[in-house]
Amino acid sequence: MAAFRFTVDGKPVSVNAEPDMPLLYALRGDLGMNNPHFGCGLAQCGACTVHLDGEPTRSCVMPVSAAAGRKVTTIKGLGTPEKPHPLQAAYVAEQVPQCGYCINGWIMTAAALLKKNPGATDAELREGLAGLKCRCGTHVSILRAIKRAQQSLA
Amino acid sequence: MDRRQFLQASGALVVCAFSPVSFSAEKGLPVPTDLDSWIAVLPDGRVQAFFGKMDMGQSLEVAIAQIVADELDVACGKVDVLMGDSATSCNQGGASGSFGVSHGAKPLRNAAAEARRLLVERASQELGVPVSDLKVVDGVISGGGKETTYAKLIGGRRFGQQVGWNKQVGNFMDIKVQAKPKAPTEYKVVGQPFERRDVAWKVFGTKDFVTDVRIKDMLHARVVRPPRAACKVRGVDQSSIKSIRGARVVREGDFVAVIAPREWDAVRAAQNLKVDWHWVEAPFPEMAALHEHIKAAKVLKRAEAAKKGDVAAAFVQPGVRIVEAEYHWPFQSHASMGPACAVADVKKDGCTVWTGSQKPHYTRDGVAALLGLPADNVRAIWVPGPGSYGRNDAGDAAMDAAFLSKKLGKPVRVQGMRADGTAWDPKGPAAVHRARAAIDSSGRVVAYEFVSKGFSRQHIATNEADPADSLVGQGTGVPPKPTQLYGHPEESYAFDNKLLAWETVPQLVDSCSPLRTAHLRDPVGPDIHFGSEQFIDELAAALGEDPVAFRLKYLSNPRHQAVVRAAAEKAAWQPRTGPAKTGKGQGIAFAERNGTSVAAIADVEVDRQSGRIWARRVCVAHDCGLIINPQGLRYTIEGNVLHGISRTLYEQVRFDRDSVTSVDWASYPIVEIQDAPEAIEITLINRPEVAPSGAGEPSIRVIPAAVANAFFDATGVRLRRAPLDPESVKLALR
Asked: Architecture of domain A78-153 in CATH?
């Protein structure tokens, strides 16, 4: 057990845990957050995705020790109903999520992708989002929403 | 404020004809014969509708609000739909059979109409204006220069009105009222594209999933499922987890779980626990021989679901030509987005369980039976879970949590690991579908036979109301009681002699089987129509006829013909009498489901090198009668198309002789965004004069055959075994 300090959505936090405990359990258990979600624990689905210093990271396999001294951003830190990230606004406009459990993966990954490549083509978007899972089959509206967000960012 | 709090808090408001609220004094449980069990007007004029089903993201919630708003003449935004709490809603069967609107909305519509009637009559008395001179606009009743409001008349108080009840519990529950609901021509809110209420919170992460429910002093549990299919527990080595803080083992019979105060410790304890398992050798056939096993297996039950004419005689008429084919469908997993989770808090004489199960009233009944409590002492509260399209692992999680909470005397949260949601969820059944037809010398189909033989689709029931249908029940010694049930194609092909039948075969493992079956979205619909709608194309090909024209020639129901025509028009279908074999192809499939007609045309591209099939464009024509919310309907159809593509091209539960080996997304691949269509074009046929039928499932059943027929058009090769994965494609095109 050791103390690990980092920030979550701009707030400094400290978590006392085994170094190899995944960051996800620190966020959900120790810090009582409801996002991100446990989907597979194997970095195969994306439901647990957060940004670590701006990079999309699967928190279900990232040891909490690796977050020490770094900035963690969750979907709540990305935007709020009052100040939504363009992707969140587009997701609402396009009524994207069905069960909604997968949403962290798609939005957090797409947010980082658009930051690097705001004009990403359809093929680049599909490639950049490879590996993320959605079980309700909202893929087509996910692409619609990202393209809508691209327009608002342009 | 929930209903109970609201009703209790508002008990002091005693005015006029409507009696004061005394909900708690009546034990607080809703009964179908009480109008107040269905609808309430709050002091601020907002309306609450108490719905015994729930919405997992397919727009049902807002559809119910639209229906209630129309009957009551209030703005849709003023109607809140409270869903899936056994303490505030009657058992309408939970999410089931795409019945949410077609059946689930009926008592809500009737209740809203009755509420409006009572309120307008009351207003008439108070204002001294005849009912016929009163109108209602957004909850304001006016006429003769006077006005009042629903809020003034009843806000916070009970109607106290008894209503008739059809004595049905579950999907078909309905009430009889004096009021006459409006005619579809009077609808203003129904038919409009209102937005869903569950989108924003999911996008901003501002409300809870069932995985987020936290109770004071709650312990975290992980159930330790056996490493093989047919295992007994000989012993558990408690010392194997003694180094983990607060971790403990709970075992009863062959049910083993670990608990710990911290979730990560429970996860580690489950990973580290040493269990001495005893197993039966090789209860499963070789996976490659699964369908041979089914064909050779003894028939437990046979049902001839549709029979017309003398099929046997027609097949042996002199001069007829026989066309036949056999199609194979694998076991499939729900593999929901996350493994199921539930929290249970068992007290001395009652239990509350928070569950993602889509049938929480039955969860209540199952938990009560498991714990030996009266059902009224159990409250099951549905909280949105990681998706569900049928009976996935959610029911087991709820039963596990209740069992463990009782054992430990503390609230317990159970969540599965990935394998619990993939390897150990109830499965969609594998089957062999055999089709045969006789064609006479004039080219007319004179006999048609379609027989499905496979595992029953109900080794466990559609809900967890009986512990015999749960893993914890079976693991602690409750004998399973499987039902033998399959299904048959739904169409109106007017072949002179026709037989549609099914046969079930014995389960491979009787108790606690990872291959036990329960309903998976459109139970056996995609499976059957993968065969039956490919076979229609095979008949057309045998006759040198165009697949669309051939269907139109034999379909006898005008609504069936209409969706086929609409899909063909949208897809710019060009008549063809044989496969294009250009690597690009187009295929159609049609089916009905409980009154909903749907046709799909898939445009696919086949990469011979990689074996990849890309359904680049899918056109769907859909007729479910009256449309409540066209926007929600479109998204629901899109979801069906993707789920259908996934099940057609990628999904099959893998197993070896001893265990299910599909344990995660690598061993149970599903559709990825690279393979999502470029376009899904949907034609909605609205029939306001026809009562709405379902939309949650029908459009998935046409996708497998549409894709397989398009593959044939692209390559000239038939793929009769699902999934049409790259390996199968490469093998077939070699």
From this structure: Orthogonal Bundle (1.10)
